[in-house]
Design brief:
Blueprint lengths: L1 H15 L2 H23 L8 H24 L3 H15 L8 H15 L7 H11 L6 H13 L1
Helix pairs in contact: 1-2, 2-4, 3-4, 5-6, 5-7, 6-7
């Protein structure tokens, strides 16, 4: 279970005195705990599933990439490097990311499998992609690519 791996990694990082990993893992676990609390209010006991944890991790990577861009524009390279180190820690808990060609192939496969033919079917296709490829692709890039395929 992903949650156990995160907790075990936090313990070992604390022993190794790896401050970047410790602080990043604490942020991850805090974000997961927030989602657990929100899920509990919706009747879900036992915490969020691994698929949702992967979504939390993806969101954290995306936020850090946005921060890196802003820090570089502001000539704050040391802060950008810190964000990059955090991304490296986060990505150790994520499955391998699909490259652009694999992402396009996945989109084509889901369009065919779901019978999506127009922009009206975008939600159905995105749902299938999220289900099949959770944590494996950047859905910020997938949305525009899928939209282009369905409107083109």
């Amino acid at each position: 279970m992903l949650r156990d791996r995160l907790n075990d990694s936090l313990k070992s990082s604390m022993k190794e005195k790896n401050t970047v990993a410790v602080s990043t893992l604490r942020l991850i676990l805090a974000a997961i705990k927030d989602r657990d609390i929100a899920a509990r209010s919706n009747g879900v006991d036992g915490g969020i599933p691994d698929e949702e944890i992967l979504q939390v991790l993806q969101t954290m990577v995306r936020q850090r990439n946005e921060s890196i861009e802003m820090y570089r524009k502001g000539n704050r390279e040391e802060l950008a490097q810190q964000e990059e180190q955090e991304i490296e820690v986060i990505q150790t808990f994520m499955p391998r990311q699909l490259d652009d060609a694999e992402m396009e192939a996945a989109i084509a496969e889901v369009i065919e499998a779901t019978g999506a033919s127009s922009i009206k079917d975008m939600g159905k296709a995105m749902g299938a992609l999220r289900e099949r490829y959770a944590g494996q692709m950047d859905f910020g890039k997938v949305g525009p690519a899928l939209k282009a395929r369905l409107t083109g």
